[in-house]
Amino acid sequence: MDKFIINGGKRLEGEITISGSKNAALPLVIASILSDEISVIKNVPNLADIRSMILILEVLGTDARLEGSTLNIDPIKCDKYEAPYDLVRKMRASVYALGALLGRCGKARVSFPGGCVIGPRPIDLHLMGLEKLGAKIEIEHGYIIASADKLVGADMLLRGPNGPSVGATVNVMMAAVKAEGVTTIREASCEPQIIELAGFLKDMGAQIEGEGTPLMKIQGVKELHGANHSVIPDRIEAATYMIAAVSTRGNVLIKKAKASLMESVIDKLREIGANIAEGSDGIRISAENPLKPVDVRTSPYPGFPTDVQSQIMALMTTVEGISVITETVHPERFMHVSELNRMGADIKIEGQSAVVKGVDYLSGAPVMASELRGGAGLVIAGLGADNQTVISRIYHVDRGYEHMEQKLAGAGADIVRVSE
Ligand code: UD1
Fold first, then answer.
1. Which among 189, 262, 291, 326 would be 20 to 30 A from 305, CA to CA?
2. Ligand 1 in contact with 35 (CB < 6 A)?
């Protein structure tokens, strides 16, 4: 198992280039099996999660090759319909195989995604939506078995107790594009990856209206064809490096970052005191002391992303005053708090909020990543801390950040990867 060794206290300066969005690419990769023709997806990040999705394609009989950042997918021989436990357990987005297989061949056998360290992550809305389209769903031996002689468009509300669901919207979209008649999704997720999936499906010949709004309408079609598509830049990766720049009071050009995808993060960083300017090649961000404490409340897009909660918390640990960070999307997503406190932070959890009292400095310590974005928060903490921070279990971080240590070292950070 690899770990990061960070000698903190170095100001980030220079450029960091953002890769394609993991969360936008994952649905496109599996949606490609909705046709029998070749699809080409460009700007795909070479990440553990993407490789897991490619393995699922291969298990289903699809030919997929990732060369550089271009993924060629030939689904003509896709004749299996089972996504096994060994692959699905590694990544929750594997459950997208359910909607894609139902859309392709009317049947799917997909392992139930396991519990997740960021709290309970049910898939009741996914199953309800697919059932509304006419799928019969059974749970047997840890597998979801879905079948439909015919998928028929339906009217559905996809809202859960914590708001709309990205994953349920993705799954329903992939089945609905091939259903007979019109599907109306109320309270659909508005996240950029939904707009991206709709764009890809439309390039394949699907008829979709209202993507990016809570009311989406899909007119099913009989056939889809292959498509060529380039994935949008990763707004969560961009936000992570922007926060790292602020945390080290640095000055960095975040190349390829798109401000229109991350306005809530930019507004918050400006409130903290960062200087941010968007140019044709990306976003320039810099910060100097003193910075101001802020309150942050995560919520579905266009609100402040839950996937940036731990990173902004790491930043606020050394900003004088009290910052309150409230998590409404994954209310139990606070595993990074105890690790930040081990580095000298002063954070108390009160219900769904973390109350962060700014301290003068964090001190480097051995810490452990327990989930993807929480791990990124620890990296930010380590970059700003004095002395050495050793972060173990960085396989979590590798799921979502391409060459993180190389990108940060290129901007002046003292960070290396070593094998344990
Ligand atoms: C996606 C993102 C993840 C992000 C999350 C919220 C991908 C691959 N992952 O995850 O990085 O943190 O959106 O922005 O894009 N819920 C239910 N029932 C369901 C499904 C979800 O109650 O059937 C709840 C969840 O527990 C959670 C909320 O709805 O509280 C939002 O989850 P959802 O949008 O589905 O997240 P994911 O698609 O899993």
1. 291
2. no
